[in-house]
Automatic annotation (TrEMBL):
Protein name: hydroxymethylpyrimidine kinase
Enzyme class: transferase
Pathway membership: Cofactor biosynthesis; thiamine diphosphate biosynthesis
Molecular function in Gene Ontology: kinase activity
Domain Pyridoxamine kinase/Phosphomethylpyrimidine kinase as annotated: residue spans: 19-267
Pfam families cross-referenced by the UniProt entry: Phos_pyr_kin
Keywords for this protein: Kinase, Transferase
InterPro entries cross-referenced by the UniProt entry: HMP/HMP-P_kinase_dom (IPR004399), PM/HMP-P_kinase-1 (IPR013749), Ribokinase-like (IPR029056)
EC number: 2.7.1.49
Length: 283
């Protein structure tokens, strides 16, 4: 009888909120993890009523159900990397941090979803303190954008690359293994420049900026891609570079999709999809 050769499947867990519109949150995470070659499993922390035009309602999942989801996947699946996104409050942060300490996955990526596009804080100050004290020091890498970096360091939002550099010491002090400070909000720059900050180095990770309004879910997608590449055996620097290349292409192809009336999603499956390539009409 022929024998089946079993190779280890790179499994990535995403812990985040659900986006009913499919562009961000758990839905974007699963798409990005799948598109970059890993297997995605999930723990949902909140259900949002959301589309390309905004969020109309948020329902946090009860704590015992967050915990039971975590136990279910960790006790069965060989989870190599974990990506954490939206955590609604201090209690959920504490539950997730406790389970991460209990199960000790090989890689942990935290995307600190804290600030809405409008600039409003999505987490109360007490929850930000819990995030900083209990979860961020466990992470291999955190991926704040500029408003989130400002909230974490209690500084003003950087308006230039020089101001991003001035934030480095305070970001290192958060205790994560590395920080990817994303410069996407500096829209006047020709390129989208991020800073990869480790304990002893800083590297500029740059990509061409693409003009499109369809950028919903970029942060979720990027952090999930980093987790996926880490699960496949790449180091942090290589994983960030591969993920930056992936999200740049997903943004570049975003206008091939026609989804919603507001800020549409990026194109997660640009490499192998017929989405947006036009319908074939027969006479």
């Amino acid at each position: 009888m022929a024998q089946t050769c079993h190779t280890q499947t790179p499994i990535v867990l995403t812990i985040a909120g659900s986006d009913s519109g499919g562009g961000a949150g758990i839905q974007a995470d699963i798409k990005a993890i799948s598109a970059t070659g890993s297997y995605a499993c999930s723990v949902i922390t909140a259900i949002t009523s959301q589309n390309t035009q905004g969020v109309s309602a948020i329902f946090p999942i009860p704590l015992e159900h967050v915990a039971s989801q975590l136990d279910a996947v960790f006790t069965d699946l060989n989870i190599v990397a974990v990506k954490i996104g939206m955590l609604a409050d201090s209690n959920i942060i504490e539950v997730v941090a406790s389970k991460i300490k209990q199960y000790q996955p090989q890689h942990l990526i935290v995307d600190p979803v804290m600030v809405a596009t409008s600039g409003d804080l999505l987490l109360e100050q007490s929850a930000i303190s819990t995030l900083k004290s209990q979860l961020l020091p466990l992470a291999d890498i955190i991926t704040p954008n500029l408003p989130e970096g400002a909230a974490l360091t209690e500084q003003s939002v950087p308006q230039s690359e020089q101001a991003m550099n001035a934030m480095i010491a305070d970001l290192r002090a958060l205790g994560a293994g590395a920080v990817l400070l994303k410069g996407g909000h500096l829209e006047h720059d020709q390129n989208s420049n991020d800073l990869l900050i480790t304990r002893d180095s800083v590297e500029l990770i740059s990509a061409k900026r693409h003009a499109t309004k369809n950028t919903h879910g970029t942060g979720c997608t990027l952090s999930s891609a980093i987790a996926s590449y880490l699960a496949q055996g790449n180091d942090v620097t290589q994983s960030v570079k591969l993920a930056k290349e992936y999200i740049s292409q997903a943004i570049a192809h975003a206008d091939e999709l026609a989804v919603g009336q507001g800020h549409g999603p990026v194109h997660h499956f640009f490499a192998g999809s017929n989405f947006g390539k036009g319908s074939q009409h027969r006479d």
